[in-house]
Amino acid sequence: MSSVTVRVPAKVNVQLSVGPLREDGYHDLVNVFHAVSIFDEVVAKESEGMTVSVVGEWADQVPVDDGNLAIQAARALAKHAGRTYGAELVIHKAIPVAGGMAGGSADAAGALVACNELWGLGLPLEDLMEIAADLGSDVPFSLLGGTAVGTGRGEQLSRLATGGLFHWVFAVAEGGLSTAKVYAECDRLRAETGADVPWPELDEALLAALRAGDAPALGARLANDLQLAALTLRPDLADTLDEGRRHGALGALVSGSGPSCAFLAGDADHARDLATTLSQFAGCRAAVPAHGPVPGAAVL
Ligand code: C5P
Q1: For residue 105, which atom of ligand 1 is closest to its CA?
Q2: Which of the residues 10, 13, 149, 152 has the least number of beta carbons within 10 Å of its own beta carbon?
Q3: 36 forms bridges with which residues in the sheet?
Q4: Does residue 136's CB lie within 6 angstroms of at least one atom of ligand 1?
């Protein structure tokens, strides 16, 4: 095989409950991931060396040196296999960069699946998930896709059943937010209030809404413990959330660590209309309709 193309979805967190800060600098989470139909493509081609390039709207914001998560993933996979392999990776970027939608994690997951195939390794998903967890807390979910709850750092995943499709709009903001900075701001705000941070628990009402495919019920339960921190760092996002709510979104929240904002719509038509409205709003760089759940990283 001389070239393999893998498609990988973005995600939104429909519940992100953040526990106390751990000694290793991470937080224990209850993180309900939901994969949505905004996709990056990762192409891996035969090559002597290991290189990465990026094309698409966001290309100029993605590092192409060792800081690139896809190249780190390819190297980690080669190391796991105990061989020196090469690959020319090309990332076709549609997921916003540093947007809270797991774009970097998606590219890492895509590189793992693509190189596993290109190099004929035949590793099972469980092995790829282990390598993925070392690359970043969200990378295992980008492999799995669908809807799943992550505990620990978010890397210990169990699949969740959903009834039918949910329709979303993602409002993409100018600029990005560093995930580490948003967690640090969350800790700072919590220290200011001095209140005890409860152990995160899965929201049973949210699970029931997902199982039933009940969009109004899901919209009412959307929750993100990082939202206050993201809004403190980017106060303009509050106006974007309000604009979506004013136009009938069933629920609105910051996606992960932001600054992308997610809006749950009643159906595909409502999502299209809401995307048109939000794309004209001054605070949005773009607004994109999408649906979920969709599968994780898959060879095309
Ligand atoms: O795992 P990943 O490298 O994607 O995490 C980026 C940063 O987000 C970490 O360095 C940490 O500051 C924060 N984080 C956290 N708790 C988690 C996941 C991420 O504090 N469960």
Answers
A1: 4
A2: 152
A3: 10
A4: yes
Q: In this structure, how many other beta carbons lie within 10 angstroms of the beta carbon of residue 229?
A: 25
Mutate which of 24, 101, 137 for ligand 1? The one with the most ligand atoms within 8 Å of its CB, which is: 137
Q: How large is the angle between the packed helices 103-118 and 69-81, nearest 10 degrees? A: 40
Asked whether the beta carbons of 181 and 163 are under 8 A apart, the reply is no
Question: How many other C-beta atoms are found inside a 10 Å radius of the C-beta of residue 176?
Answer: 18
CA–CA dist 175, 284 (Å, integer): 11
Q: Give the tens place of pLDDT for each residue, 111-136.
A: 999 999 999 999 999 999 999 999 99
Residue with tokens 């995307």: 275
Distance of CA 97 from the midpoint of ligand 1 (Å) = 16
- Place 76 in a pLDDT band, splitting at 50, 70 and 90: very high
Residue 20: which residues within 8 A CB-CB, separation 6 or more? 27, 28, 197, 199
Model pTM? Answer: 0.97
The pLDDT value given to residue 201: 98
Q: Is the shortest distance between the CB of 29 and ligand 1 below 6 Å?
A: yes
The answer to whether 177 and 257 are in contact (CB under 8 A) is yes
Please write the tens of the pLDDT for every residue from 205-225: 999 999 999 999 999 999 999
The model's confidence at residue 58, banded by pLDDT at 50, 70 and 90, is: confident
Q: CA nearest 91: which of 121, 117, 56?
A: 56
Q: Choose the residue to mutate in 24, 141, 153, 179 for probing ligand 1, maximizing ligand atoms within 8 Å of C-beta.
A: 179
Enter the tokens of residue 180: 């580490």
Instruction: Round to whole Å and give the CA distance between 109 and 142.
Output: 6
Round the average pLDDT of the chain to a whole number and report it: 97
Q: φ, ψ for residue 253 (rounded to 5)?
A: -155, 160
